[in-house]
Amino acid sequence: MLTANRDYTALYQEVGPALWRAIYAYSGGLRDVADDAVSEAFARAIQHDGTIRRPQSWLYRTAFRIAAAEVRRRNSQTELGELSYEQPSGAEEVVMALRKLSPNQRGAVYLHYIGDLPMREIASLMGISVAAVKVHLHWGRKRLREILGAEKETNDV
Amino acid sequence: MSEKWLTALKTIDWVDPSPDLLERANEHGPTLPDPGPPSRLRVTTLVIAIIVAAAGSWAAFAGLSGLDGARHEVADGQEAFNALWPETSRSEAEQVQALVDAGDSGVQWRIDSGSVALRYAQEVLDWPNPIAGSRGTNDADTVIVVVHGPDASCSGIECQNPQAQQRIVTLTLERLVRSGDVGIWSVTAANEGS
Fold this sequence. Notes:
The complex is a heterodimer of chains A (about 160) and B (about 190). Chain A is an all-alpha fold. Helix content of chain A is about 75%, strand content about 0%. The longest helix of chain A has 27 residues, at about 130-155. In chain B, a hairpin with a 6-residue loop joins strand 2 and strand 3 (about 140-150). The longest helix of chain B is centred in the first third of the chain and has 17 residues, at about 40-55.
């Protein structure tokens, strides 16, 4: 058991669920990737206790870096698998739509529109440039409009 | 009224993480390999960082003014390779390009000019939270990136050092090994100011 000076239980309660959902969206609904990335990021934060000035930003960057490596590894081997666990009603449709975007598009769209974060902060948290965030947001939003907007309108008729 | 796709996206908030993540972190500690740059890039970075540290951090920053990779050109008949960072020789850069081509996840950041600029700021200048914005050029294989730091996320009462976000460095990045979207970027010049 590692010891820590910072209250990581409180930090997890404050940051953990939102970070997990951001990684969940980024990975295209891969729960195990989100679980591993978030728990690993917290483990490294605890290991480096006392040396991290801004734990929230640090946790996001670390978790995104870990998730990015895993998503790339899986993409290079095979397509993302079927959703093998039960999703809340409505979430499965969104996850399948998100999978038609790139990971960075998914992450940027989620952090901006659900996390309500400005582009500069998203760039910092994801470890990419502001210009790249703008591009990912543009194409991610356009693609989601095409997929989710059109499908819902069709169902409404 | 929010758009339909946005309403749908909010259903992600109904999904909950596994309940034992912090427990796992506490009990097992770090278990995954760090997906940072490959070891040879770390060695290169370390060498550069030591040189920069030896010169003193402020002097090193001031010394960036006019720093141009063209000075690294050799005149003994070898092909010139004008990169400052991460690699300083064509053979090293070609090895990294080969890793990118092979799909190595640890080096894919090299094909994103913004990521390369941010890593330069973090690893060479030791800026903890830089931000970067790109400027286009007439050459698709050259980009100018203006990086702000050392801690551009530092603002308001949280920011103990008002100098934390007042430095700017302008980097020139070029694709020196291969043109196009899958070519790796290298820093070829670094100048103080915008």
